[in-house]
Every structure is written in C-alpha cells, then in structure tokens.
Automatic annotation (TrEMBL):
InterPro entries: Epimerase_deHydtase, NAD(P)-bd_dom_sf. Belongs to the NAD(P)-dependent epimerase/dehydratase family. Pfam families: Epimerase (PF01370). This is NAD-dependent epimerase/dehydratase domain-containing protein. SUPFAM superfamilies: NAD(P)-binding Rossmann-fold domains. Residues 121-409 form the NAD-dependent epimerase/dehydratase domain.
Amino acid sequence: MMLSLDVRLQRPLLLSRCICIFWLESNSKMAHLLSTSFSVKISSSNRPRGQTLNQVRAVLPNSFTIKTSKSHFKRLVSKGDRARKSCVVLATAVPVSKEVSANPRYGSDGSPSDSSKPQRVMVIGGDGYCGWATALHLSNKGYEVAIVDSLVRRLMDHQLGLDSLTPISSIHNRLRCWKAITGKTIELYIGDVCDFEFLSDTFNSFEPDAVVHFGEQRSAPYSMIDRSRAVFTQKNNVIGTLNVLFAIKEFREQCHLVKLGTMGEYGTPNIDIEEGYITITHNGRTDTLPYPKQASSFYHLSKVHDSNNIAFTCKAWGIRATDLNQGVVYGVKTDETSMHEQLCNRLDYDGVFGTALNRFCVQAAVGHPLTVYGKGGQTRGYLDIRDTVQCVELAIANPANPGEFRVFNQFTEQFSVNELAALVTKAGKKLGLDVQTISVPNPRVEAEEHYYNAKHTKLIELGLKPHLLSDSLLDSLLNFAIEFKDRVDTKQIMPSVSWKKIGVKPQTMSAN
Ligand code: NAD
Ligand code: USQ
C-alpha cells in the first residue's frame, strides 16, 4: 500500500495517529536532520547499510511518502488481548485522575497490595539497547510489559549513515518473535513522550504500576555535533521526562518512576562520589544535600536537569522515583535476547553512539587500533547489560516510597580507558588477534588523569549479583564482534565530533 501524508495538516486524521505524531514531532524537532522533500520506506526488513546523510536528503518536508503494508500499519499499535484497551492510543478522551485508594494494586502504605498479580511496567525507550533487553527480561519474569518508543533512534542512525554491528529486526518482528517463542505479549505504543496527548492516552490505556524511562537521546557526542542537536537533546530529554512526571501525577499517582540517569552527572570530582546525596558540615551547620553535579556534555547536562525536575516533583507532588545513575554499559547478550536471532540487541561501535568497551572489542575484531582518547586516564563506572536488566528489576520490585527521590549508582566496576584497552589487548591476543592501541587527540573536554572513587552499594544491598568483567565475557564479546565483522563500516570508527568546534552551523555527518 502506498500512502501519502501531508504534514502541513494540523491534525492528520488518518490511520495511526501515533506514526503521524512520530513524524510530525520529528519534523518539528529535528529540522536539522530532515529535508524539504523526503521519501521514507518503512518495511520490516533492515535498511541498506552505510547510507549517508546526503542519501537521506535532509531538509524539512512539506510532504513525504510512506510505503508500507496495510498489516504493518495495523501493527503500529500492537495491543494485547484485553478488549477494554482496543484503540485507546488513537483516542483523545480526557482522562480522569484516580484516587490513590482506588488503585487496587497498592495498599495504604503505598506497597503493592496484591503480590500475586503481575505488575504492569511501561518501558519507555524499549526499542533501544538497554530498553529492549530490559523489556524482554521483565516480560520473562512475569511482569506485564508495554514498550513505548518513538523509534527516533532508528531514524538518527539512518540519518547519520550509522548502523548497529548486529542486524536488528523491526520492533514489530521482534515482538512477534517474542510472542511465538514465549507466548507472552508485549504491548507496543509508537509515539513520542514529548507529545503529552499521546503519553496521556498511553498511560490511560496501559495503566502502569511502574514506568522505566530509557527514552532519551543518550549520546554525548550526538549532543555536541551542533546547536540544533544540542537543542534537540535537551528538549527531547527534559520535556519528555517532565511529561512523564505530569502523566504520573495526573493519571497514576502511585506509579513508581524508574528513571535512567547517568554517572556522568557527577563529573569527576576530587573527592569520593556518594549515591545521590552528600552530608556536608559548613560553618558549624550540617545538612544532607544533593551531590554536586558537573556534567560535561549537553547530553549529560540534560540528565542533571531531569534529576532536578524529578527531585522537585517528588517533594511537591509526592511522586515516588528512583534515579538510576548508570555507568557505561557493555555487552550484548542477555538470556532473553539470545533466544532467537530476531531478538538480537543492537551493538553500537561508531564514534557517535558507540561506547568505550563495546567499541574496543569491535575495533580489535576488525584490526583497527583501539582509540584511546588523550592520556586514557579517564575513569568511569561500567556494567554488563545483564546487570542493567537485573538492576531495573530490583528497583521495580523494591519501589521508592511516595515522595522519595531515591538515587542508586548503577555500575559494578570502574576502569580507566587505558585499563580497558589493556584488557581487550590481552583477550584479543588469546584469540590470535593483533591488537594495537593509538592515542587519539581527545575530541572531548574532560579530565584525562583524575581521582575517581564512586560508591555503588545500594543495588548490591537489594540483591544485585554482578557479572564482573571477566576473560570469558571479553572472549564472548570479541567472538561476537568477529562473527559480525563484515558488517563493520571502518569509516565510522574514528571520532568525528569535537566539543570545542561545536557551533550554530548545522553539521553534515556522513560516511565518506
Ligand atoms: P538507545 O538510543 O539505544 O535507546 C533509547 C531509545 O529511546 C530509542 O529506542 C529511542 O527511539 C527512544 N526514544 C528517544 N527519545 C524518545 C522520545 N522522546 N519518546 C519515545 N522514545 C524515545 O539508548 P540506550 O543505550 O538504550 O540508553 C537508554 C537510557 O539509558 C538512556 O536514557 C541513557 O541515557 C541511559 N544510559 C545508557 C548507557 C549506555 O551505556 N548505553 C549508560 C548510562 C545510561
Ligand atoms: N573514550 C575513549 N575512546 C573511545 C570512546 C570513548 O577514550 O573510543 C573515552 C571517553 O573520552 C570517555 C570514556 O571513554 O572518557 C567514556 O566514553 P563513552 O563514549 O564510553 O561513554 P559516554 O560518552 O560517557 O556515554 C555513555 C552513554 C551514555 C551514558 C554514559 C554513562 O552513551 O548514555 O550516560 O555512558 S557515564 O559515562 O557514566 O556518564
């Protein structure tokens, strides 16, 4: 079926409102990326790799064409079996606030009142790296799960000419596969959480007991490409989170917000990093205050703004929230994503979205020298993706109290970049790889040699059993990278975004 949408319409009347929202939002917020005439093919198969930004001409569209099948449109809002929820995402009914006592899943003390009933968890950003693994894990553990995602990340990859190392199926095929293998349904709402009407409908349709919010622009380099990407990052992240807070207040007062923050909010202070709060004695008086934040990119700063907004609404409205200040995640396989190739998670290795250890493993696999930025003493907290899903489950199972803004530092070990490079070199040699390292002039503004000692005990106290970085994990990640090395576009490996060169001029990022 060929379908044309005129995006000048104030309110497109047709079909799935969700996809209209997605594209309209994309158009208004991502004008830096789109073009006056724009043709998009959406299909369940993967797009061709290595597409350049020039190939996906980038100017704001007056109209665009979506080629898809009728059945795909039907699946844009993939619903569970419950009849009461049919078409709710398409509806615009004004929701009614619910009283706390009217929520049968919580007792008067705010704790879940019926432990036998699976909790309903909304995973925002559930098509992404952490969100996909988490959604499957929670579904496997008996939670009723809905994924909310605008799919903007797939669009960004497309526009920057990037691709995951691993081939990833469309979200629809992923969910079909999950259902076929496990019999479990994960509901799907495609839309942008910055669109409050969409979010309201989604909340009223799904009625979450917990919301896990991964749905943000998460790359520091992306936020430092140019002014419009910086603005997009902060609008997308801060407004999205603000909308989630308002949705909880309005429709699901007892819902527990589990928000993905980042260790990078703290920066690299010359004292120990505490979990969220620090007790200070100043001029003879003592207080426990939020730990000072020194973020070092427009992305990391968006997380600081989120944290402040969440803390404020916990105080003002009694919202219950857990801020998971997560370190850098590595790895790709979890028990659930390993069940079938269509469930495979993404693995980013490029200079914009790829993170240190994942990048180093892919670099080693293709014989590219490991790209240590500057002196390589930059130290961060790291964790295996299998621990990301475990930590989120622990946070949901042990909710914050009403009004509590709880902060957990979510990582298991800390490493400098040089230490990571040495570990990958050693593991690569065991596999017969010739692994070299180069020092790349640091594209970022950050301390390259510094003190770093961050606390991370609260999740352990709740029962986290860490998967520490081991030879076997490195071996498996390297072998995984070797398996897919033919998909690597080596031109995407070197960093291309400079913290100092960012300006107002839109930057064209393309694979040459
Ligand atoms: P990702 O880019 O793979 O996934 C993010 C998902 O959110 C994407 O599917 C994207 O389409 C969706 N999204 C973005 N904006 C949205 C919006 N406005 N409405 C609906 N959906 C939206 O990122 P990730 O690596 O999975 O990271 C997830 C979260 O975890 C982020 O908040 C990130 O800051 C945090 N985090 C990630 C890491 C890491 O190493 N990957 C480390 C620490 C914290
Ligand atoms: N680095 C290199 N070489 C590389 C890539 C990175 O030396 O090829 C260095 C960076 O300069 C930085 C460190 O490694 O000092 C970590 O960089 P990264 O790209 O792995 O991670 P970062 O940009 O901090 O962001 C990632 C996620 C982000 C999350 C953050 C957690 O993309 O969403 O918030 O990790 S944290 O670092 O704890 O803030």
